[in-house]
Amino acid sequence: MAKVHFSSALSQHTGVQEITIDAPRVRDLLDALARRFPGLETQLAGMAVAIDGQIYNDADYQTLQADTELYFVPRLAGG
Amino acid sequence: MSERSYTQVGTRPVRHDGLDKVTGRANYGADFSLPGMLHGALVRSPYAHARILSIDTSAAASMPGVKAVVTGKDIAETSAKLMMGEGAIDLHDVGDNLLAHGKVLYHGHPVAAVAATSLDLAREAASRIKVEYERLAPVESVDQAIAPGAPILDDKLVTAGQPSSAPKGPTNIAGRMELRRGDLDRGFADADLIVEREFRTAATHQGYIEPHACVARHGQDGQVVVWCSTQGPFAVRDACAGILGIDASRIKVIPSEIGGGFGGKISVYLEPVAIVLSRKSGRPVKMVMTREEVFRATGPTSATKILMKLGAKRDGTLVAASASLWYEAGAYRGSPSGAGAMCCFACYNIPNFFIEAYDVLVNKPKVAAYRAPGSPMVSFAVESLLDEISRTLGFDPIEIRLKNAVKEGDRAPYGPAYGPIGFRQVLEAAQAHPHWHAELGPNEGRGLACGFWFNAGMNSSATVMLNSDGSAGVITGNPDIGGTRVAQALMVAEELGIPVERVRPTVADTDVAGYTDVTGGSRVCYATGAAVIEAARDVREQLRARAAKIWNVPVEKVGWKDGQAVPQDGAGDQKPLSVVDIAAKLSHTGGPVIGRASVNLPMAGPAFGLHICDLQVDKETGQSKVLRYTAIQDVGKAVHPSFVEGQMQGGAAQGIGWALNEEYIFNRDGVMENPGFLDYRMPVASDLPMIDTVLVEVPNPLHPYGVRGVGEVPIVPPLAAVANAMRDATGIRYTELPLSPPRVLEGLAQSD
């Protein structure tokens, strides 16, 4: 079960600060979140995903382990 | 990561492109020409905010020698978005910034363009284009933008990311985000000392020496070629394709050498306009900005207003923090306020905090990325307050930072736990540095500050080709800004065991290189470097197979050691084969050997820096001089230490300029009054001492050698390091930058 943490801004859409979801990959997790929290998908569109501390801009097919910790963060590049 | 020894990595060979660059032989954007080429000129808005009522191009179009005239109508408004870097780039806004469609949103906003047989003629024709405007009141600051009844730049703007309960309606606030942890009220209630200030920083320009320049040729067959100075040829290609509705396969972008970018040469300003002019005229079109145009119409970084509060226990432990960040976006959404929020308290463990960040439209040029976008401004605030706390509580500035410094396993303010990071090692290196213990003279002060940046990953590709004489070539798609060619050559040399001088690195165009994201985000040595290493290892594996063929043994019986194929597991007593030996037999063993790799890497893992600044202040004139400066940084692994040091020195120099002199000065009509290097004062070599550097190497586990990314962190600490030195020298806490002589004098006068 991956543990998903929501920022304070995102938790205004979810009503919770964290949730555990059983999903094999990030894409499956996003689909599950969209079903559970209608409208959240719009907020998450284009965000990067931190998986156990590593931040991926494009994470859809990253696999999730049983104890994975996951955050959504703004995409960043730099100058 | 286990310690590994290197034969090439960590050495300091002469860069392959060095001689061309120091002798003036290298070709930059404006150096390129084609037979029959036309010259383009832009018509720019004389107002900071106005509605376009009409554009009459007839007089210009009828001039002999004028071959094409275009306006916003020639670039259809698009809803396309381009995924790149900081999320989806709104190509509608980029297109509207190229040639305004309904309104002009800043002084210098292009409204029309001309292509003619000479530059003088193009400029003359541009001056004959009549534009009728309805002037509107300009919005020139965050305070004006959010005031009740403020003029609205974009009637359709909706604040992104705001709390769902927030009021809707016309606004100039393009975005809001927040981060929080713990119980803020309780945190401040537990604090023994609370310091709170409002900070302001001015808009500053990236200040690249080379202006924007391009040549575009739109063929009758619809094939487009663009020669330009850019940090990202693929970004230019895809932006042009999206804005103009052209298939990406029909556009080839050939990057020139680049005379600086620092984030400001990622967006397109000229290229799509030049393509449209070329399409309309049937001839190649060259466009080169003047320095004034660069200042007036290309991205500076955000001016900011930051309200920050820190609470600490008597023992120096930080217990609470709050920050309200207001970043000017310029004419379109997209300031780095979100990055500012994420960087804000990233250096320290603070159990209770609240950060809100706003992206605010104003009638100024759209901001662009600038080295660690968003981070230097918040570092100015937090490091100034920390200096205040250490003074009040009687702590050594390094000691209090060590007490609160993040380490591996601690949580970043944006959530995830840090992997291996070197902030504490950086602080300890500063503690041991002689600069920190040196005596100061009269009217001199010393300041110290720290900084944080993420370091990007993203997409990169590389191709490594082995030649029959055992030399090699490496091709990537990243324009070389900071010595990346030689770094990539070092990586190939390291993997293949050949001298770096025998590796030829090439920056290729978009038809030759595999897709590669921009040269930016401190990512090239990390992400493109990882692709280069993988491609070189691909070559090495193929060489093992060729050696197996030569020895007539299974490939499993061929090992690789010290740059040679060696027999193993009973392959007999074959004499090891060097790369040169195997290369000589390529044609007999299967033909050419080409290695390739493409990667999309996660962010590299953050880097931390610390700068120490000694400042001498003339209290009669307000002028200050940097006497001594030391930059210390966790760089992961320095592939070519000279260029790592160069990045740190360059970032420090730009940050010192930001701190001491650089600022956009606007009049009440929103017109920039200092659009030239005489009045926009960047530091030159004679302004600065030799900037000392200390490389701390805590390897990044995501890269084969531990590379972490270097180029952006160095611009983060200088703002506060200089301001803290000014505080030490004058006793005055300045909270607004730049610390130019008039501002310093004003502070001194008020303190008397």
Written overview of the protein:
The complex is a heterodimer of chains A (79) and B (752). Chain A is an alpha+beta fold and 79 residues long. Chain A has one domain (2-74): Beta-grasp domain (Ubiquitin-like (UB roll), Roll), CATH 3.10.20.30. In chain A, a hairpin with a 2-residue loop joins strand 3 (48-51) and strand 4 (54-56). The mean pLDDT of chain A is 93. Chain A has helices at residues 8-14, 26-36, 40-44; strands spanning 2-5, 18-21, 48-51, 54-56, 69-73. Chain B is of the alpha+beta class. In chain B, the strands form seven sheets. In chain B, strands 3-7-1-14-11-12-13 form a seven-stranded mixed sheet. Chain B contains 21 helices and 28 strands. In chain B, helix 10 (337-343) packs parallel to helix 11 and helix 19 crosses helix 20 (718-730). In chain B, 28% of the residues lie in helices and 25% in strands. Among the domains of chain B are: 18-25 and 457-601, Aldehyde oxidase/xanthine dehydrogenase, molybdopterin binding domain (Aldehyde Oxidoreductase, domain 4); 32-136 and 206-297, Aldehyde Oxidoreductase, domain 3 (Alpha-Beta Complex), CATH 3.90.1170.
Q: Largest sheet of chain A, order of strands side by side?
A: 2-1-5-3-4
- Principal-axes geometry of chain A comes out as globular
What is the number of beta strands of chain B?
28
Distance between the termini of chain A: 37 Å
Question: How many beta strands in the DSSP annotation of chain A?
Answer: 5
In spatial order, strands of the major sheet of chain B run 3-7-1-14-11-12-13
Shape of chain B: globular
Largest sheet of chain A: 5 strands, mixed
Query: What's the order of the H and E elements of chain A?
Result: EHEHHEEE
Rounded Rg of chain B = 27 Å
* Major pleated sheet of chain B: 7 strands, mixed
* Count of discrete alpha- or pi-helical segments spanning 4 or more residues of chain B: 21
